[in-house]
Predict the 3D structure of the following.
Amino acid sequence: MNAAADGGTVDVRVRFGARAVINLTGTLTALGGISARPEAIAAAAEMLARGVDIVELQACASRIIAEATGAEAGFVAACSSAGICMAVAGAMTGDRLAAIERLPDTESLPDEVVIQTGHLVNYGHPIEQDVRQTGARVVAFGAVNSASPHQLEGAIGPRTAAGLYVVSHHCAPDGQVGFADFVRVCHEHAVPVIVDLAAEYALHAYLEAGADLTIHSAHKFLGGATAGIVCGRKPLVRAAYLQNFGIARPMKVGKEGIAAALAALRCFVAEDRDAVRAAALEQLEYWRGRLAGYAGVRAEIDPDPTDNPFDRLRVTVDAARAGLSAVELVQRLETGEPSIRVRAHQLEHGSFVMDPRSLGAGELEIVADRLCAILDAAARGETDPGARDVHAWRQRKADALRRWPDLDPGPPA
Ligand SMILES: *Cc1c(COP(=O)(O)O)cnc(C)c1O
């Protein structure tokens, strides 16, 4: 993929020396998020060449976000991680600029954030760090397989600034306090509820169910550039926004990110969700058809685990029959040209998932051809037994990261 389809200019990734990637993780931030919508790209490009008053642009963003979400107000942040940090900081300081400038010194401020243990996720870094860098303390309650409203009540005290609730397939699946109970207990104690909905399509539902602030990534389902959307009750939104003049200065969003987020949000709201889902399902069915004849390979439609309106294809590989394991298949997809990246969280169980939301033109077939070529080779016995250990593969990735910027494996020690 050295040349772009339109007239032979070299692909921007290749021009800078990076490999072209087909992103089948869907929206993973580490792969640059979702491929942005043309409307978002155009808005960002136009805005980049113009001067604009950011405070005014963000006030306009507030109205557009309010219209799209039903919130009282909103703003665009650098990303969801920044949004969580700013929301927590705002819950501590309110709109007092002196307190905002003093963070992360929290003296005389309420400075505790309650969260259930099963929600202490890692999305590239631990969520606790978004809280702690404001100067707040994380007060966790419950266990990974069991948490209850009385434990939440016990965790709340005079220093509690906010409750943080995470909706994600990364959260502990069982035994956690549900959203309605979380809101009820927090509100009984006048504690505002901040909800991390970074990858969730539900722009209205949690606000309607009592959330005080919700946070969404613009570069995930919305199709914007890298950014976050923070929205909810106006005083809390304002307090979070004002952190731009405090600890959020190093996490600022640019005018181009704001423009892309707003353009993407408008497109997202206007879109027919059922039609989008049906079109993506056709792509998954195409892949499923191409994989149908291979012994030891099972491909199934996998609806999103947190009920977002889209599906993925789950591919499960029986190594004994297919001639290669799931981890080996994933590595071959990754090391080929272009590099094809799938969601590999569950490789231990012999399966991975393919998400079509970031597919570019022509990539559907490239992916199918590559899968078939790898499986054909495996059927002929061309495999690499050294590539079968999931933990060794993850360790190699961790080791490579620690050699950055020297990413190529060095000579054996
Ligand atoms: C992706 C993600 C984040 C971080 O989002 P960014 O916008 O990339 O900072 C936070 N929480 C959850 C649950 C996520 O999935």
Notes: The two ends are 34 Å apart (CA to CA). The longest helix spans residues 273-291.
